[in-house]
């Protein structure tokens, strides 16, 4: 079993963009409704450049959760996104930025989530020390509305100013 240990942050400014070593357009959708009673996982299809994956994550909010990811045929993934996705498909551009021994993934959301930029970093352990770059803002690891699956249900452009400014 794979375990993902990841922290999520908003960005304070765009200084990270000049450090990006790669950028990739992504589209992803979810094949199940996590609000169904008894739901224990999310099932996601993602197109990332010219590759596609299916991903299953346990429904845990916070630093770590179970995660399984497998390659799928791109044409199958495109069809699943068009015909099987529950809710809207999320589109974003992912930038990769190397800082010391970590690769930061910065997602600049498009469409219904335009204006939202989230930086994520995977860790080796939950108690790993992490020096934050100066362009990192508030941590949102434990705030459900910043998770991609939540953004399919309530996109960023529909958030009130209170929601955008609250970190509870």
TrEMBL record:
It holds the Pfam family CYTH. SMART domains: CYTH. Residues 2-153 form the CYTH domain. PANTHER family: SLR0698 PROTEIN. It comes from Hydrogenovibrio marinus. The active site is at 30 (proton acceptor). It comes from the Bacteria. This is CYTH domain protein.
């Amino acid at each position: 079993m794979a375990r993902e240990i990841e922290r999520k942050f908003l960005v304070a400014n765009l200084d990270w963009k000049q450090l990006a070593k790669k950028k990739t357009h992504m589209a992803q959708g979810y094949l199940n409704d996590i609000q169904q009673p008894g739901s224990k996982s999310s099932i996601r299809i993602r197109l990332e450049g010219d590759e596609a994956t299916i991903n299953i994550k346990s429904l845990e909010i916070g630093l770590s959760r179970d995660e399984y990811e497998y390659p799928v045929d791109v044409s199958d993934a495109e069809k699943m996104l068009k015909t099987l996705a529950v809710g809207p498909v999320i589109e974003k551009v992912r930038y990769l930025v190397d800082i010391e021994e970590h690769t930061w993934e910065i997602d600049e959301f498009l469409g219904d989530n335009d204006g939202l930029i989230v930086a994520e970093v995977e860790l080796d352990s939950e108690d790993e020390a992490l020096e934050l770059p100066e362009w990192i803002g508030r941590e949102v690891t434990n705030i459900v509305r910043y998770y991609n699956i939540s953004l399919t249900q309530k996109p960023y452009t529909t958030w009130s100013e209170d929601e955008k400014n609250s970190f509870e």
